[in-house]
Write a structure and sequence with these properties.
The chain contains four helices and four strands. The protein has 109 residues and is α+β, with helices and mostly antiparallel strands.
Length: 109
């Protein structure tokens, strides 16, 4: 599952740190700490999302930053579309724009 979005250049390093951590499997408290920069409302929303989804869904297989745009590939799982909706809403709460979500078919068919 892939999520793409744009952001303000002032938060570029924050997003990079968030996705580097998720690519290393840091899906719990460290993820929450990195997201705290976006405020209390985002922290509460993230807490809810973390309670509903297994940690594996948050793992990032790759990410690519180009200027003020980011593309992130999440490992996700069978309910990837629903997870993408919740993550998209979380990212919008962080102030991102031009949000796009798409599934990635790895079945080989």
């Amino acid at each position: 599952m892939s999520i793409e979005f744009s952001f303000k250049s002032s938060v570029a390093e924050r997003w990079k740190a968030i996705f580097e951590g998720l690519s290393r499997g840091e899906t719990g408290a460290l993820f929450q700490d990195r997201m705290d920069v976006f405020g209390e409302a985002v922290a509460e929303q993230l807490e809810d999302v973390l309670e509903r989804w297994p940690g594996e869904y948050f793992l990032v297989s790759s990410y690519d930053q180009k200027g003020e745009s980011m593309q992130v590939e999440f490992v996700a799982g069978p309910d990837a579309a629903k997870f993408a909706q919740e993550m998209g809403a979380l990212f919008v709460a962080c102030g991102v724009t031009d949000l796009r979500c798409r599934g990635i078919d790895l079945s080989g068919d």
